[in-house]
Amino acid sequence: MREKSKHLDLKLQLNYDGGVRSYGQHCSLAKALDVVGDRWSLLIIRELIARGACRYTDLREGLPGIATNMLADRLRDLEQAGIVSREDAPPPVARPLFRLTPRGEELRGVVRELTRWGLPLIGDSIDGEAFRGHWLAAAALLLLKDNAPDAAPVAIEVRAGEEPMLIVTAGGALQARPGPGVNPDAIISGTPRLTMGLLTGMLDIERAQALGLEISGDASAIERIRTPLPLVGAGAS
């Protein structure tokens, strides 16, 4: 038995050292983690969900802290797994664009649940922690919904970082993009923690304002997209 265990340990070590990075387990979860469990892989997928087709430089800007060679390696791995595709962009971009394949799009549910699960872990920002406005856009797209799809569209501008974000209802679905709006129905200004606390139902408008969130315009537009989520874990209360 000891010799068999030593043989298995050696096999797994060889898999890792050889770059395969396989857990060596005949289990669908382990197989999935073999593909997307590496550091940065799911965050690359987050970027492509939030921003659609991206240039390499867009991805690098949206992933502060990643080394250039690490990004190149992860993109290559995701391409080989059929999760990300590379295509030549027309002028004036003239650089390859990366986008999710249909197989990659199937990971939206995984990213959504991890985003929801991680909400109670969001506290006040810590020195050295980066933030990008489009990360909030990704969370909005994954977690929120239009609660009055038959009503006229509304636009809500969110100012929670260096760059504002616009959430728009359209045809019963939500669209989110970086940048300001033109005469938005409502404006939310504050920290990412308070903003997501309001939009995901952890805070009501009165409580969010008491904690420092600034809200102007039509509050009913905000109520329309507020989507209370079942939260578990630390800080869920």
- In the CATH hierarchy, the architecture of the largest domain is 2-Layer Sandwich
- What's the rounded overall pLDDT mean? 84
Number of strands: 8
The CATH superfamily label of the largest domain reads SCP2 sterol-binding domain
The general outline is globular
H/E element string? HHHEHHEEHHHEEEEHHEH
The gyration radius over C-alpha positions equals 21 Å
Distance between the termini: 48 Å
Residues in helix, %: 40-55%
What is the topology?
Elements: H1 2-17, H2 28-36, H3 41-51, E1 54-55, H4 56-62, H5 68-80, E2 84-88, E3 96-100, H6 102-105, H7 108-118, H8 133-143, E4 155-159, E5 165-170, E6 173-178, E7 186-189, H9 192-199, H10 205-210, E8 214-217, H11 219-225
Parallel strand pairs: 4-7
Antiparallel strand pairs: 1-3, 2-3, 4-5, 5-6, 7-8
Helix pairs in contact: 3-8
